[in-house]
Amino acid sequence: MGDEQGHDGGTRPVAVLTCGPAGAGKTTYARELERQGYVRLSHDVEVRRRFGRYGRDTPFERFEEYNDAVRPVVKERLAELLRQGRDVVVDLSLWRRADRDAYKAIVEAAGGRWRLVYFDVAPEELRRRLRARRSRDDADAFPVPDELLERFLAGFEVPAGEGEEVVRPAAP
Length: 172
Description:
The protein is of the alpha/beta class. The protein has one domain: Rossmann fold. Helices cover 44% and strands 13% of the residues. The chain contains 6 helices and 5 strands. Strands 2-3-1-4-5 form a 5-stranded parallel beta sheet, sandwiched between helices. This is Putative kinase. Pfam families: AAA_33 (PF13671). GO terms for molecular function: kinase activity.
């Protein structure tokens, strides 16, 4: 981007790193940024492109295997886009601090600036949203069974003191 301004008014490209459980609103947020000119990167999109849709073309039991296969592709694409001066939104859960730190390091090494946006949504609301998601058939409606959500929540490392911005849903 040279001296051109990034989406947040700076001169370096921006990578927005989303963080939060399934159903928290990360993809909705990422799609909005995409409409504003950011490039959206997502493991779910890349898995679907390479292997098909979870639960339809690919078994849930191979979730980790598929994510492991696309992880380096997404990371390299992130670095490449930032080196080109493009603003990026990384539409991932980033449920471990080590993963968040790794993505921050990629962004900084590629000359970008990062924003970590954490979606703090109560478990009951996540369950409600995920039940509604399972009834949809759109491409980004990754169907998360309750047992998978419970495992995810049990291992989720909530960001604290990492420079995060916290987003909470409005009260109904």
